[in-house]
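Subject: Sanity check before I submit

Could someone independently write out the structure tokens for this chain? I want to compare against mine line by line before I put it in a report. The sequence has 491 residues.
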Amino acid sequence: MITNDKNINYLKHQVVLKICEAAWEGEITNDVREKIVHEISPGPKPEYRCCVYKEREIVRGRIRLALNENANVTNPTKNVVQVIEPACDECPIASYTVTDNCRFCLGRPCISSCNFKAISPGDVRMHINSKVCKECGKCAEACPFGAIVHLERPCKKACPVNAISYDEYGFCEIDEEKCIHCGQCVHNCPFGAISTKLALVPIIRAIQAGKEVIAMCAPATEGQFGAGIGMASIKAALKKVGFADMVEVGLGGDMTAAYEAKEWIEAKKEGKKMTTSCCPAFISMIRHQFPKVYENNKSSTVSPMVAVSRYLKLTHPGCITVFVGPCIAKKGECLNEFIADRPDYAVTFGEISDLLESKGIAFEPVEEDYQESSTWGKKFATSGGVAKAVIEVMEEMGEDISDIKLLSCAGGAECKKALTLLNVGRLQEDFVEGMMCPGGCLGGPSKLMAEREITKARAGLLAKADRRKILENLENYPMDKFSMYRDGHME
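---
Independent answer below. Compare away.
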């Protein structure tokens, strides 16, 4: 994972690893929890925080999340993304602050520009009353020395849908009605105060119960673990830890592309514009902020993850499906009541690595002879890959695609701009591909390496794949036996 502070990752890794080890051994009682707390934070001196007592309380919050519980006992929430309150108290509450550059000038343009009387002279510089300030920014614009700066808290700045606010004590609060589970706040908080629930213990319990647990690895998987670790290597490691099998979700990319192509062809005939439906954070943004677009322009095809899960549950009745990828929003999609027949669980690359480590298993190179997806499905992981796959299917169907205009958006700002234009009828392009992460899924919040490193490792692995066509590939699967639509209906 790429974050602002490797210490946050190390702490989370310690907690998750110890919880997984304990889960394999038996029941995780309160005594077991407290033992883990004191193993991670033995004292008497703290390693990360002001005191060992606060440090231990933060570890307890992380343990609760690792057990798929709420981080805060007194503040229950259904949201996948949660705030560990003891860890959230180091950021300044005031948004606009006067720095030492203030010269106490005679003109006092900052005072003159403020309509709310929030600024007054202090002992050595001007002072802004955060309780009165409306954060309009006029004082910063007026200051001739640039002495007033806008200090936006990292979590709030990273959120593309303005779902983060603060309570009277300065603790971060996440609006469940606005949150799209994109995970940007999680990996932008420099104190590790925001994290997510984990499903590793329920997965371990399912494996121990002898259930058929099948992993579904995202198209972004290839390259995450280095140039020598492809899908076959990952499948081998997951089988060692207890998974019955592994299927690449690039296959679901082929399935989704085929059905979105049908929708695009129909929309093109009607002169209707459409969006893709693969990125759950993108779809959540549409549903929360652009209901008209959600009703009229969103593709009704399921994401590749849901497609593969439905296929597996058809061919392996009673199986448990687990998505593995760089995406936090997939955890939210597994709980999304607007999607029928959802997968059971979703975990990140870091979490699955911790699960393997808890049993002493590592990824090792093997002969890469496993491929269930076309290269088009594999490239769903990159910005533009979804749209290109849909266009490929349209070409395979003999459709004229010469006059189609595509818009690929990656990142919250680009997606919001495109949806705004579509909402007001000013979008020039015919179809919009939306991915909430810059660079697409390869730039997901829970990636393991820098994007350029992943891309380099990935290139060699993808070069070994055969060049099968999408529709040709899907002839091997019972596509008429399960629904490819969000509400679960059959054609």
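---
OP: Matches mine. For the report I'm noting this point. The mean pLDDT is 93.
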